[in-house]
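dumping this here before i forget
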Amino acid sequence: MSQENDTQQQGLSIDFGDELSKNVTIHKNVNQEIIITTADKIKLVLINTREVLTAQRQWWTPAGLLISFIATLCTAEFKDVLGMSKDYWQALFSFLSIGALIWLIVTLRKLYINRKGAKLDQIVEQIKLKEE
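structure:
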C-alpha cells in the first residue's frame, strides 16, 4: 500500500520552469511617476471635478419637467378646480413650462462649459500643475 501511495504522489516529473522559459516573453513596465501635493490642492481639484460631473446629469430634471408640462398643455382640457378658473390653470402650466425651459437652458450651458473637464487624464493634469 505504501508503494502505491508513493507512486501516486510522485506522478510525472516535468520541469515547468524550463518549459515556460522557452515560450514566455516578459515585458517590463515599471516606470513610476510620483506627485507630491497638498490636501488643499486635491480638495480644489475634487470640487471642480464634482461640479463637472454633476453638470453632466443636472439637465435631466428640467428636461423631464418641461416634457411633462408641454404634454399637459397639449393634451389636457383644463377645468375650474379648487376655486380657480381653467384659464388660471392653463396660465400656470404655461409659466411652469417657461420656467423649466429657462432652467434647462441654464443647465445645458453649464454642461457645455464643463464638457471637457471630467476626463481622468485631465484631473491628473490639474493635480500636477504647479500654478492654476
